[in-house]
């Protein structure tokens, strides 16, 4: 418990010291995602990804694979999130989406802070909200939106081969990906994960809004 409180306070202090960069947005194109810090545990298995004992004391981030039935971005890696409804803050939207997608009910005391807004090629402005979830033992996917839930140890985002940058012939900046096991996650999700690593773990005020997204993520 002492270790958890120490890590929570450390991350919260780093977010408070970080100067946010916000993007202009309208209500129709505003979205929020939850960057959820939790304990490692049994998530869906990933090829090439080491499995860890359930409910260990190691910190992890909560990611999902989107349902294959969704109209947009089916099967892709994602952070829980969605549109910000009229009258909602980004924080409230992130908590609502957590409850809807993975049945994780948290209140405002779980909010640690925000990362920079990220403007997607499809025109959405995503606000990442960093959330502390503790053990989160009873999460389960909403099958209408989520195919599987994964607890990825924070250490995985500190790999020496992360981030992966490549110019793909569109845009002036490289596409950013974050490796996970034998897979990789693309921007915009990967860009948010990379900034979490830089700001919340390494304490570096790294910007990511300029990184490009692969063509399949544009739609």
TrEMBL record:
Residues of the Nudix hydrolase domain: 27-177
Protein known as: NUDIX hydrolase
Protein EC: 3.6.1.55
PROSITE patterns per UniProt: NUDIX, NUDIX_BOX
Enzyme class: hydrolase
Presence of the UniProt keyword DNA repair in the record: no
Organism name: Polaromonas jejuensis
Similarity field: Belongs to the Nudix hydrolase family.
Gene Ontology molecular function: any one: 8-oxo-7,8-dihydrodeoxyguanosine triphosphate pyrophosphatase activity
Superkingdom of origin: Bacteria
Cofactor: Mg(2+); Mn(2+)
InterPro entries, per the entry: CoAse, Nudix_hydrolase, NUDIX_hydrolase-like_dom_sf, NUDIX_hydrolase_CS, NUDIX_hydrolase_dom
Repressor as UniProt keyword: no
């Amino acid at each position: 418990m002492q270790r958890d409180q120490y890590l929570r306070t450390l991350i919260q202090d780093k977010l408070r010291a970080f100067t946010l960069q916000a993007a202009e947005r309208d209500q129709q194109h505003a979205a929020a995602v939850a960057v959820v810090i939790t304990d490692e545990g049994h998530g869906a298995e990933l090829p090439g990804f080491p499995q860890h004992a359930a409910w260990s004391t190691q910190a992890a981030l909560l990611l999902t694979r989107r349902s294959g039935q969704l109209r947009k971005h089916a099967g892709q890696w994602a952070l829980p999130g969605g549109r910000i409804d009229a009258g909602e803050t980004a924080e409230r939207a992130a908590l609502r989406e957590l409850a809807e997608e993975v049945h994780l009910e948290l209140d405002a005391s779980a909010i640690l802070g925000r990362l920079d807004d990220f403007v997607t090629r499809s025109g959405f402005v995503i606000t990442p909200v960093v959330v502390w979830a503790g053990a989160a033992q009873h999460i389960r996917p909403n099958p209408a939106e989520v195919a599987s839930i994964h607890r990825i140890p924070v250490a995985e985002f500190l790999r020496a081969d992360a981030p992966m940058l490549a110019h793909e012939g569109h845009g002036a900046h490289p596409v950013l990906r974050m490796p996970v096991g034998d897979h990789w996650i693309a921007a915009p999700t990967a860009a948010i994960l990379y900034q979490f690593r830089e700001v919340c773990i390494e304490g570096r005020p790294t910007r990511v809004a300029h990184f490009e997204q692969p063509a399949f993520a544009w739609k």
